[in-house]
């Protein structure tokens, strides 16, 4: 099963890009962020024409998350985090799809730092960490996927010295991500590409994509019950070069139907 996460940066304004990528890449399940569309303006018909069912949590002008599936019914389990510090913001959507429980998220940006937006990011991260712990306790195969708005390490950002004061690279935010993964989550992309320079976002300014001056802020985290099924993890970075595209590229993983067998020691 191929599961992708993609911050579309406006689902209606960039619908041709989304539809082209869905047709060419053919992911089985997709988590979308930053829809920037109210609930009644999600382009359900166009997405269904490509064979995908969809659920979404919209918000006018900002935020918004969605789950798409072409491999079975989407069974929604949660809309918004428990103890969400601002439930009016559409940032979390959770559902069971084809035997996997998927939490799609759009973590707050947090800039400027310091300030109320950064404080909100920290509170939202705390709520996510608490909920993630309960998901792990369930023992189910769980995937947390989306735009986390955090570069976990210096390897995940072009010229890290330029980002020391930014909310995406702040010590408190990197520590929160480490606390989250320390619960037992597997960072799929970094696990399969431990030493590579690999990004998922390039700003629109200063020819960032052309210079490969990027950030890795879109992540797929696997619970222990799912990590053994990880086969591949990649970034469709060419999509970032398309006309009128998002500043993010889609990121995807491939899961086997069963955990890979461990080799016997001789």
From TrEMBL:
Domain Endonuclease/exonuclease/phosphatase: 4-248
EC number: 3.1.11.2
Record-marked site positions (Important for catalytic activity): 218
Organism in which the protein naturally occurs: Sphingomonas glacialis
Cofactors that this protein relies on: Mg(2+); Mn(2+)
InterPro entries: AP_endonuc_1, AP_endonuclease_F1_BS, Endo/exonu/phosph_ase_sf, Endo/exonuclease/phosphatase, ExoIII-like
GO molecular function: DNA binding; double-stranded DNA 3'-5' DNA exonuclease activity; endonuclease activity; metal ion binding
Biological process per Gene Ontology, one example term: DNA repair
Sequence similarity: Belongs to the DNA repair enzymes AP/ExoA family.
Positions annotated as active site in the UniProt record: 106, 147, 248
Site, as annotated: Interaction with DNA substrate: 248
Protein name: Exodeoxyribonuclease III
Pfam families: Exo_endo_phos
Residues annotated as binding Mg(2+): 7, 34, 147, 149, 247-248
Site, Transition state stabilizer: residue positions: 149
PANTHER family cross-referenced by the UniProt entry: EXODEOXYRIBONUCLEASE III (PTHR43250:SF1)
Keywords: Hydrolase, Magnesium, Manganese, Metal-binding
PROSITE patterns: AP_NUCLEASE_F1_1, AP_NUCLEASE_F1_4
Enzyme class, spelled out: hydrolase
Lineage: Bacteria, Pseudomonadati, Pseudomonadota, Alphaproteobacteria, Sphingomonadales
NCBIfam families: exoDNase_III, xth
Binding note for cofactor: Probably binds two magnesium or manganese ions per subunit.
């Amino acid at each position: 099963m191929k599961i992708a996460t993609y911050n579309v940066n406006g689902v209606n304004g960039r619908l041709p890009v989304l539809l082209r990528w869905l047709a060419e890449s053919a992911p089985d399940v997709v988590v979308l962020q930053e829809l920037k569309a109210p609930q009644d303006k999600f382009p359900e018909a166009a997405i269904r024409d490509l064979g995908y069912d969809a659920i979404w949590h919209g918000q006018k002008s900002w935020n918004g998350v969605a789950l798409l599936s072409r491999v079975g019914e989407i069974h929604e389990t949660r809309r918004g985090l428990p103890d969400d510090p601002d439930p009016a913001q559409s940032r979390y959507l959770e559902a069971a799809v084809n035997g996997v429980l998927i939490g799609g998220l759009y973590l707050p940006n947090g800039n400027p730092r310091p300030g109320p937006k950064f404080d909100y990011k920290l509170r939202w991260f705390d709520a996510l960490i608490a909920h993630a712990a309960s998901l792990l306790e369930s023992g189910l195969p769980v995937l947390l996927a989306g735009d986390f708005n955090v570069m976990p390490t210096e390897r995940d950002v072009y010229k890290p010295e330029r980002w020391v004061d930014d909310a995406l690279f702040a010590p408190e935010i990197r520590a929160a991500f480490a606390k989250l993964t320390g619960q037992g989550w597997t960072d799929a992309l970094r696990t399969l590409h431990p030493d590579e320079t690999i990004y998922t976002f390039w700003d629109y300014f200063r020819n960032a994509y052309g210079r490969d001056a990027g950030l890795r802020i879109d992540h797929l985290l696997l619970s222990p019950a799912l990590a053994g099924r990880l086969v591949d993890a990649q970034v469709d970075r060419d999509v970032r070069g398309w006309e009128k595209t998002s500043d993010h590229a889609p990121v995807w993983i491939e899961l086997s139907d069963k955990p890979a067998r461990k080799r016997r020691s001789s």
